[in-house]
């Protein structure tokens, strides 16, 4: 059984950039300990020879041809550009 102490919970909150009031740290430590306990339970499951799933129903992922295109509507893409020339975005020169 993993046990997260209050200073560790405070450090985790700080690293996650989550503001946690001092009074709420014991509850956070308890919840984090529960998460780690659940993860330890998952490690006990034998998954040898089990294929990873993308869904609970058997299905293949849709695949498409990987090819470079202009998207089919370059005028619409460039319509809101501040400066477009000859079908491209024009940007200020930054290198002399």
Structure explained in plain terms:
The protein has 96 residues and is mainly alpha-helical. It has a domain at 6-43. Helices cover 35% and strands 4% of the residues. The chain is built from 3 helices and 2 strands. It has helices at 6-15, 25-43, 74-78, and strands spanning 84-85, 88-89. The protein has a two-stranded antiparallel ribbon. Strand 1 and strand 2 (88-89) form a beta hairpin. The longest helix is centred in the middle third of the chain and has 19 residues, at 25-43.
Order of helices and strands: HHHEE
- Give the number of helices: 3
Residue share in helices? 25-40%
State the separation between the terminal residues, measured CA to CA: 63 Å
Q: Which strand order does the major sheet show?
A: 1-2
């Amino acid at each position: 059984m993993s046990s997260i102490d209050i200073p560790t919970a405070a450090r985790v909150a700080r690293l996650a950039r989550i503001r946690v009031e001092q009074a709420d740290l014991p509850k956070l430590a308890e919840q984090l300990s529960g998460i780690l306990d659940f993860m330890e339970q998952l490690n006990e499951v034998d998954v040898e020879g089990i294929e990873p799933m993308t869904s609970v129903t058997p299905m293949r992922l849709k695949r498409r041809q990987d090819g470079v295109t202009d998207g089919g509507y370059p005028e619409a893409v460039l319509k809101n550009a501040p400066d477009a020339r000859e079908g491209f975005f024009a940007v200020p020169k930054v290198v002399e």
